[in-house]
Specification:
- By secondary structure, the chain is α/β, with parallel strands linked by helices.
- 43% of the residues lie in helices and 15% in strands.
- It folds into 2 domains: 205 residues, 3-Layer(aba) Sandwich (Rossmann fold), CATH 3.40.50; 192 residues, Rossmann fold, CATH 3.40.50.
- The chain has 17 helices and 12 strands.
- Strands 2-1-3-4-5-6 form a 6-stranded parallel beta sheet, with helices on both faces.
- It is elongated, with a radius of gyration of 22 Å.
- It starts with 9 loop residues before the first helix and ends with a helix.
Amino acid sequence: MSDPVANETVANETGASESGADQPGNGLHVYVIAGEPSGDVIGARLIEALAAAAGSDLRVSGVGGPEMEAAGLKSLFPYGELAIMGLFEVLPSVPRLLRRMRLVADDITRQTPDVIVTIDSPGFVFGVIRRLRSRTCPRVHYVAPTIWAWRAGRVRKFRKHFDHLLALFPFEPPLFDAAGLASSFVGHPVAEGDVDAGDGVAFRTRHGIAADATMLCVVPGSRRGEVSRLLPIARETLARVMPDHRDVTLVIPAAENVRTVIEEAVATWPWPVTVVDGARERYDAFAAADLALATSGTVTLELSWAAVPTIVMYRVPWLTGAVARRMIRVRYASIVNIVADREVLPEFLQPRCRPELIAAALRELLLDSQRRAEIGAEARRISRNMEPGGERPSARAARAVLDIVAAHRKR
């Protein structure tokens, strides 16, 4: 869940010269909580943007991963403990999560930061916030809840516990403003990454992939649970397609935390598979790809940003899916389709996430290069609506946080 790159000074990008930028001179202590890889990236960029404005006056505490630690955070504990998906999959980890919630709440109380910024991971975040003994500083939540997609009533809980939301999509602030919760559109992190900088020619050369070979990216998810459910479906899909398309080269851009699991699984596949990890390899792979088969998530937006025609698949355990279906308010899973309100990217979800159905769509696109180009171009056009234009999302987010702290100090 990445980035635009502007050539202006960070001071201008964060609005440091105008949005009460003198407030960091008094020292700024930000407590940041992120519980999964996408939040870790967002948190790291926010920390860097705040540091550019506050300099040595900035102090950061909280919970994060390697990206946030590289930006200057010393995490209270390994954030990987929080990356658990599913309504029922989380149950075995409840005692440990409750202990971690108390630990973080006690740490916030002890440290008395100037502002708390929580990033996604609402289940853990609310557990922490509810355990705070007092409300001495502003509370900001980054990545607004998708009330337009499911469980609209969640806005009441956010309104009770938070002072401000930082939204990824331009259509979100009016919804929250109408519900009485202040919010700001800062842009989607994909607009700030290096998706546009991918070098497809270099990727093919580096990995020995012919320039005229049809390259298919398979992205089975960034969590072990996703990979265990969806990689077998991808394999069965390919078993129906590969015999008639022997020119197809398979590449899997893997999240670092699941690369070993994926490599062990594909070692038994009857076709050669190139597995890579890291942002540079991933974006180069996208630039080189003719087509993708991907798990629903931020990666489908990244692929759309790179104009890669993508077939979207997703499946959760039956009971989790049955409960979720009663609460979901949108027809689609990928944000490109949600924004367009139509199926730009072919989707195969839950009972339709079956190899025979996915294989039929994959065969069709492999045989129709014009259709692939049309889907890629349309997905790219729609994805660009997530870009705030002329300013990095992290800089907009940093400016919003500084403004909130400045307003609180004036009370």
